[in-house]
Design brief:
The protein is of the alpha/beta class and 481 residues long. The protein has three domains: 55 residues, Orthogonal Bundle (434 Repressor (Amino-terminal Domain)), CATH 1.10.260; 186 residues, Flavin prenyltransferase-like (Rossmann fold, 3-Layer(aba) Sandwich); 217 residues, CoaB-like (Rossmann fold, 3-Layer(aba) Sandwich). It has 18 helices and 22 strands. Strands 13-12-9-14-17-18-20-21 form an eight-stranded mixed β-sheet, sandwiched between helices. The chain has a six-stranded parallel β-sheet with strand order 3-2-1-4-5-6, sandwiched between helices. It binds flavin mononucleotide (FMN). Flavin mononucleotide binds next to helix 9.
Length: 481
């Protein structure tokens, strides 16, 4: 076996490894001297090695992920390469990863559940409507348990079902009911792969964040050649190990960090049937809550009335009015980070007939008067109040929806409200509200970053990276290294 010093050299040397791992170069020099990598940095080194295509077996003891508690679900579909998934099972088992296997009906025409069960030393799941399985490990548990779901081989059929939300067997139902990362390793006849329908499904799934291990080019079992070959099981294995390590690393990124996020619109009632609100859908705030939760943060999401599903996060509080949102947000402090993404109504609207004559707004207002006037009362400014208070979180981020002078207006908000970072977007011509993409500017005291238009999930991902950088820059001297 080669030594750690050689591995560090292959990874670019002491300085580069230290920079990538955000630790002191002296720590890496010590590893070289002692020929040992501390346990808590092993994952990061494995991940870096996989990125550099370096086979760590030459340098480190063989992978044993027993203590990392990785959970993988393998879905085997009915393709000519189904038998190759048996080698995958062997590799995953050897690494002590907790593996469950689901086979489609078609897969069982190629290999048997008995063979899979013997290799995996565990029941292989095949039936959505099994009374016995449903009582022990039901399909929702199978969907929720894994860190990663690998579909290998993935048929054109399962891609089409997933792209179109079809859930007519155990495999396709699990794929729809899961929060886990999904990776597909498609394998099929080259004409099937290049078929417009398959390619459209592929693009659709990529756009929804599904991962792919692209099929190889070469001779196929059917006698034709082209793109569609199942990649070598070791290639698939390395890719899922790399993803699992990233998932675990990312899952600890915001460990012990409490984050309060406001999202969606608020509603100001005029009477029991009428109200004033705005066009915010909550999509951007929900995406941020979901991403930061995935990275281990304890997220409290305070949401106005929305029509989208709630993300998976520690705590969800539903509110209607700006006043309620203000009170509930304050009630969640102290917290480490506040992200005010909600489109909060600036005013309450109090109906009246004339300057002196108020209206009974407890009941539905009648059309007896030609004119209805409104007195407006300013709602509390959640962002500014908290940013200037004694309970101010370490990092306060606000969103600013503008229709003109975007950067100038956002910068003046940054200063007047005393926040650390403003994310500004152009909402003229309904460009953002309710849409799945967003184009934002990140403005702090010194800089203005323009981000290209991207999905709201992607904005959430990049923002989480940005927040992580702000935090780790403050803790750059990692004394554990
Ligand atoms: C001998 C044979 C080989 C097949 N190989 C593949 C294949 O490699 N890839 C594929 O997408 N479909 C292949 N099919 C077609 C699938 O088995 C079929 O579309 C099936 O409905 C897939 O079901 P599933 O996605 O539920 O596993 C093959 C069919 C046969 C009879």
């Amino acid at each position: 076996m080669n030594n750690i010093s050689q591995l560090i050299s292959l990874l670019g040397g002491t300085g580069l490894v230290a920079e990538k791992l955000k630790i002191k170069p002296s720590a890496v020099s010590n590893w070289r001297k002692l020929n040992r990598i501390p346990k808590n940095k092993l994952n990061a080194i494995l991940s870096l090695s996989l990125q550099h295509n370096i086979n760590t077996e030459d340098f480190l003891p063989s992978h044993n992920f027993d203590n990392l508690n990785f959970k993988v679900l393998l879905i085997i579909c009915g393709g000519i390469a189904s038998y190759k998934s048996l080698e995958l099972i062997r590799l995953v088992k050897k690494a002590n990863i907790d593996l469950d296997v689901v086979m489609t009906k078609s897969a069982q025409r190629f290999i048997t559940p008995l063979l899979v069960t013997s290799l995996n030393e565990k029941k292989c799941y095949t039936d959505l409507f099994s009374v016995e399985d449903e009582s022990k490990m039901n399909h929702i548990m199978l969907a929720r348990k894994p860190d990663l779901i690998l579909v290998a081989p993935a048929t054109a059929n399962i891609m089409a079902k997933l792209a179109n939300g079809i859930a007519d067997d155990l495999a396709s139902t699990i794929l729809l009911a899961s929060f886990s990362q999904i990776i597909l390793a498609p394998s099929m006849n080259p004409v099937m792969w290049s078929n417009l329908a398959t390619q459209e499904n592929y693009q659709k799934l990529l756009g929804r964040g599904i991962g792919f291990i692209a099929p190889d080019v070469g001779d196929m079992a059917c006698g034709e050649s082209g793109t569609g070959r199942f990649p070598e099981p070791k290639v698939i294995y390395d890719r899922i190990i790399s993803n699992l390590i990233n998932i675990k690393n990312i899952a600890d990124q915001f460990k012990n960090v409490s984050i309060v996020i406001t999202a969606g619109p608020t509603i100001e009632n005029i009477d029991p049937v009428r109200f004033v609100s705005n066009r915010s859908s909550g999509k951007q705030g929900f995406a941020i809550a979901s991403e930061l939760s995935r990275r281990g943060a304890k997220v409290t999401l305070i949401s106005g009335p929305v029509n989208i599903p709630f993300p998976k996060c520690a705590n969800i509080i539903q509110v209607i009015t700006a006043q309620e949102m203000f009170e509930k947000t304050i009630s969640q402090l102290p917290a480490d980070i506040l992200i005010c993404c909600a489109a909060v109504s600036d005013w309450k609207f109090i109906p009246k007939i004339s300057d002196n004559e108020k209206i009974d707004s407890k009941n539905k207002i009648k059309k007896t008067n030609d004119e209805l006037l409104f007195k407006t009362l300013k709602n509390p400014d959640i962002l500014a109040t908290i940013a200037k208070s004694k309970l101010r979180p370490n990092l306060v981020i606000g969103f600013s929806a503008e229709t003109n002078n975007i950067i100038k207006n956002a910068k003046s908000k940054l200063i007047s409200k005393e926040v650390d970072l403003i994310i500004a977007n152009d909402v003229s011509k309904n460009k953002v509200f309710g849409e799945d993409s967003n184009k934002v500017f990140l403005i702090d005291k010194n800089n203005c970053e323009e981000w290209c238009e991207q999905s709201k999930n992607s904005v959430a991902f990049n923002l989480a990276d940005k927040i992580n950088n702000i935090f780790t820059t403050a803790n750059i001297c990692d004394t554990n290294a």
